[in-house]
Structures are given as C-alpha cells and as structure tokens.
Predict the 3D structure of the following.
Amino acid sequence: MSATPIQSRNSRDLTPVDAARTQLLEEISYHSQETLRLKTLLNSRRAISRLPPELLLHIFLLQAEAFQQENLLRWPAAEYCNRKPPEHKPLYTWTNVALVCRGWRELALQSTQLWACLVLDERVPATWVRTILARAERVPLTVVMHAVSHTHCSGCVSNNHPEQNYRYAVELLAEVLPATRRLAVFIGKSDYADVCNALCGPAPQLEWLHFEGIEEFADSYGSETPAVTLPQGLFSPGVPPLRSLSVSTIEFDWHSVLILRTLRHLKVIRRRSNNTNLQAPLALSLSRFLDVLQELPRLESLELDNTAIPKYDPAAQHHPVTLPHLCHLHLSLASKNTSHLISHLCFPKTATVHLAMPPHSHQIPALLSEPTVLEAQQNFIVNTLEGMAVLGIATHLPQSLFYEASPEQSPCCIWAENTGSGDSPSVFPSSWDALEPKPPRLIVESPLGGPLLDGVFAAIDLRHLRFLSISEGPESPPRWTNTLRHAENLTTIYVSGTMAFGLGAALVGWTRPPSMDEGSANGPHDSSFPPSSWVGFAEAADDSLHFASDARARSGSDQGASDALSVRFPRLRVLRISRMDFRLARPMTPVERWRYHDFISDIMFHASGTPYGLDDEGLVRSLRLRAEHGGTRLDRLEFVDCQCFERERLVGLLGVVSELWWDGKRLTEADLPVQTLARV
C-alpha cells in the first residue's frame, strides 16, 4: 500500500499561506506520481502487454508499412477526397508508437527498420530528419522527397524555416541516395533542377522508384505535355537494380536508362486530367514500343493510361511479344490503340486484364460510341476469354461515387478458368466465397447493362457461369438479367442495395407495360421521371402474365415483353440480398425523406413515383411463378444487414423457399409472429 503525502519539515518556518501552498504542491506531486504508478501497473496487466516483444515489434512494422503505402508513397488527389487536403498530408505519424509508453518506446528504439523511412519536406526540421537517420543506422532506406512548396499553407510552414528545411532536404537526398532501396519523388514546382541534380549519383540498392508531377501543378501550365520531364543521366555512374518503376504526370522517354531487364513492375500515367486538350498521344509507335517490351522478359505487371499507349501504324510491321511472367495488365478503354496493343501481347491465361476508364470522367468517352471502335474493343475482350470458362461475375461502384468516378466506371469483374483441351473446367468452385478471393481474369470499367458488355456477353459462352454478385450501380435488375439471360446454369446470386428492389420482376423477365403509365401526367409522379421498369409487378393482373415456350425463352426473343415472360436463371439455388431496406407500410412524409434518405439517388425514387424499398410481394410472386414454370425452388434465401420494421413481410417468403435466413440465423414461422412495427 502506498504511503500518504509527508508534510515538509520547514513548514513551521513559513507563513500560513506559503505553508498551505507548499502542502498543495506536495499533494499534487504525490498524486501525479501515484497516477503514473497506477497507470504503469494497469498497462502491465493489459492483454497487449503480454505479447512477446518480437510479435509487438512485428505489429509496429506492419503499421508503419501500411501508413507509408497509404499516405507517403502516393500523392493524395481527388480519389482521396475524404481525407485531409494534400497540404496537410501526414508525414511521420507512424512514429507515434514510441510515445505511448516507456516499454513501447524502448522496443521502438531498438528497431532500426522502424526508422528506415525518411520524408524530406519543407515542413520537417533538419534536426528531426537527422534524428530519424541516426536511429535507422545502416539499414536500406525508404525516401520520400516533396518538392511541392506551393501546396503548403502558411500555417504549416511559418514557424519551421521552410526554405532552410528544403535546402537541407535536397542535400540529404544526395547523401542518402546510395543507401536508398525505395524512392518516391513528388514535384510541384517549376524549378526542380536541384532535385534532379541530387539524383545524379549512384544508387546501388535502388529497387523501387516512383516519380510524380503533382496534378494541379502540371495542369496549370495548360500544355499538351506534362510540365515535368524526367531527365537523362539519373543514378550514374552504374545502373540501379530496379524492380519497380512508376511515373505519373511526367514526360517519360521510353529509351531511358531506367528501362532495365530487371524490371518486374512498370507503370506509366502521362496525364490524369479530364481536359481532353491535355491528352496528348504518345509519340512512340507500337512497333518501337514492342521492341522495348521485348527487353523486359521478367515483367509481372504493366499499367498504361490512355495517353501512354503507343500509336498504331497499319503500314508498319509488328511482332508479337511474349511476357511469360505477366500477372496484371492495366490498360485504358479510352484509347483506340488499346486493342492493337493487347492483340500483340502473349501472356498467361492466369493474368488479370484491367480495362479502365479515365479518372474523373463523367460519361463514356465519345470514341466508344463509334461502332468500329466499340466492335474492336468488344473483340479483344472476347479474345481475352478465348479457351476459358466464365465462372463468376461481380460488379460494384468505386468507393467515392460523387467525387472519384461516375457510375459508368463501375468495375465488372469476370472470373474465368482455362478449359484446357476439354469443353469445361475440371473442377468448379464450391461456392462464391471460394471463387472471389482468386484474381479475376478481366476487370472492365463499364456498366453491366451497357453497350460494351452487352456485346461481349452476347458473344461468349455463359453456360458455365455459376456465381453472380451485383452491387450498387447504374444497372437496373431488368438490364443485367437481360444481359446475362443465357446463363442457364447460374446457381448463386448476391445482390446488394437498391439493385434488389425490383429483383422479383427481373427474375421472370417482366417489365412495366406502357398501359400502366397512361394518364401518369396527372398521377403522383412527374411524367418526365417515369417509374422504374419493375414497378407494378406485384399488382399486375394474373391474366396479363403469359410465359413463353421453353424454346422461345431460351432464345431470348421475349425481351421486355410483359406478355411473354421467361424464367431467368432456371437453376438458381441461392439468393442473398444485403444492405437493403424493405418497403414501409406507409409512404414517407417529405420530412422523413430528407431525414433518412438524403442521397440524391434515394430522393429520385420519390420524384419518379418509384416506391423506395424491396418489392417483397413481387419477389414472392416471382419465386412462385418460377417454380410453376420449370425453375428450381430456391434452397436458400438470405438477408444480410437489411432493414425490416415489419417482420410479417417475411412470412410470405417462407412458403416459396426451402430455407430463409436473416443475419446468419435460419427463420421459421415461430420466429415471425404477426407484430406491427416489430424490428428484426
């Protein structure tokens, strides 16, 4: 038990006021020491304190690497708009583990690898940089150089002597270059010759290199070429053992000494701007570019934006290039030359081909509306899947819809396996969870119901397709079910968000007939925003629902006809619906709409007269009709992270599926009493 505070011996010689003040100070000191002792005792009994030092240090290193990859080795741009602005970019935050407690500090200071990252920036004092460098000792370094003074606000640099810090950063860059293993250089100023001069020395350990011209700085020049040019003569004498080279918004010479046979990863992004006047094509011809690739036999990943893809000259001779180790190919759909490039590349069928749209694009490029270009893009996508069986398809929106990309850039991922000499793969995945972790064969940034993928899926064999996952996007259920209507062996569908609202109508090919919209101008919705095509299925008269013959249903000739329905995906066994709201019993008031559905996409439901929420009655009707007209009965209908205020809405589903699940629990009639406004 700790001792109580002891009164000072000299308190009798003090005045009463001074004695009282001294006593208070002693008590404050005592309680501070006691608080520290108790905190130390508490920390020693925490679970994390019982971790072996080796494991705790491993966690520190993983955290440091994750921070550096996320915040330091790339520049925050529009796609990271949910974070702090670039001028407030965090720099040494990962070192905070050394400030938590004495034990953590001692452990952190014992590790040289934890301090092996230098951020050279005008906000960082020279004393702190020297401290980090001393703690790193002789381990290979990760160096991040910021030559971007114009992006910093005065509050960040006013008290840190920015000019002096920057000069020291450039000097130190040249000093540590021989010990640098990874180097990232960000340039956002017109005079960057000092940085280039600092990089003219030898770099015998350099394996990873990234050069980037800051987008805002490069675009401010208004030229057709990047404002930053990568000079010749870097890292001489000698040749660095580069394994990864990435250049972004920088004029790059393909005959640079940095194009080495040791390269495993190559990324060239010449322009990120959405200003088409700045999209200058690459001067290099396809034949010369293929000569460059011929010298990179170890290449594992290649990424080019639409302005870095070489021009195709039909009069020139082109030879195919084999890249036997290629795992990832990232090209742009917005270039006419993409199809010519990919047709001259030979790479394994296990490689992933990512066909991207330009960032910040809010519409499909005009070139994709040209029939010849559209057909060429469709043909090389189909050729990429030649000799392969399509097993799974998934779509999802980019992370930040309103800032980063448009719905037209919704990635569509296609999983396919080589069929070899047979007609089908030897082994089918047992479930979607077994297939999804594998890298997809194709990633196409185009909506599933759009013209590009419509033509692709019409041309390929979908009889091996087993799994489908549809997230939020511009597609409506009738669009993607119609696009994939030939996938008769599909067994599993995962749907999330608003994509599930009209699923019942889509699974039998029903669309809203024009007769339902007669007189809609005087109805509850604006005639300029007609209801979604699936609205009204639950209320449609029985005598209006006519199923086509099996032969006609297989041919797909009943598209969009409400009097000729067909069972889509007749062998469907598992349906999972996630992150979705059931329809409320009463319409929401205007106040409730804005309070609970403040996204414009939700508000548009009400503007068009489309009820917000799952059409559960339509889903029940659809599953019953499917079973009556040759479709298999669902083995499992699962709801995950959904909202349902009226449990009785689930009762009807029990009669049309074998198993009904809600958030991992199988439901029975006993679990669903009729109770108004009871929340599941």
